[in-house]
Amino acid sequence: MAKKILIICVSFILGFFVAYFTQTIFRKIIQNIFEWSTFNVIALQGEDYYPNTIEPYFIFFGIPFAIFTVSSQKSITNKIFINLIFSLFIFSLSLIILTIIDANVKTIEPTNFEKGIVKWSRNSIVYNTPLAICIILAIAPHLFKMLKKR
Q1: Distances (CA, A) of 86 to 2, 15, 56, 95, 129
Q2: Is residue 122 within 8 Å of residue 48, measured between CB atoms?
Q3: Which of 35-39, 75-79, 107-111, 146-150 has the lowest mean pLDDT?
Q4: Secondary structure letter of residue 40 according to DSSP
Q5: Packed helices 55-71 and 128-149: angle between N→C axes, nearest 10 degrees
Q6: Nearest alpha-carbon partner for 44 in 131, 126, 124
Q7: Which candidate, 31, 102, 21, 99, places its Cα nearest to that of 61?
Q8: What percentage of the chain exceeds 90 in pLDDT?
Q9: Distance (Å, whole) CA 131 – CA 56
Q10: What whole-number distance in Å separates Cα of residue 7 and Cα of residue 79?
Q11: Under 8 Å between Cβ of 19 and 62
Q12: Which is nearest to 29 in space by CA: 125, 139, 107?
């Protein structure tokens, strides 16, 4: 039991560090999707400044790592790899779809158009909520698998 708790804690900490080091990457990905999905109707401007990183974002990355570790125990390596690829696919697809929907809805809202372009600050985009939703969607099959075993 102590070994299982240690493995869960280590995987949670690993997820925390992955969140810390990939935060900038995900922000850039979301910004790029915002621009290309609206055919550059939304033009992002200004510095990408985020001094106060929200801690729940890091926790939302740690929990799925722990859930994936628990649900993958006693599985063969090939099955673990396939499940990981499947989760990454769900995460990526849902991130792209949610961001495209969000960007296109924001172009519909009444805003200041200047020559057909909406100028936004990079910090006006909400980053953590779509990422949290995508993480939940990606880990949901593993969570259901874990609950089904009990």
Answers
A1: 29, 17, 24, 14, 21
A2: yes
A3: 107-111
A4: T
A5: 30
A6: 124
A7: 21
A8: 28
A9: 11
A10: 19
A11: yes
A12: 125
Query: Model-level pTM?
Result: 0.85
pLDDT, tens only, 37-76:
988 888 888 777 765 566 777 888 888 999 898 888 878 8
Tokens of 31: 């910004």
The residue count of the chain comes to 150
80 confidence band (pLDDT: 50, 70, 90): confident
Task: Tell me which amino acid residue 129 is.
Answer: T
> Position 4: which residue type?
K
According to the model, what pLDDT value does residue 119 have?
77
Q: Give the position of tokens 């063969």.
A: 76
CB 42 within 8 A of CB 106: yes
Q: How many beta carbons lie within 10 A of that of residue 2, not counting itself?
A: 6
**Average pLDDT of the chain?**
85
73 three-class SS: coil
DSSP string, 16-81: HHHHHHHHHHHHHHHHHHHHHHTTTSEEEES-----S--HHHHHHHHHHHHHHHHHTTT--HHHHH
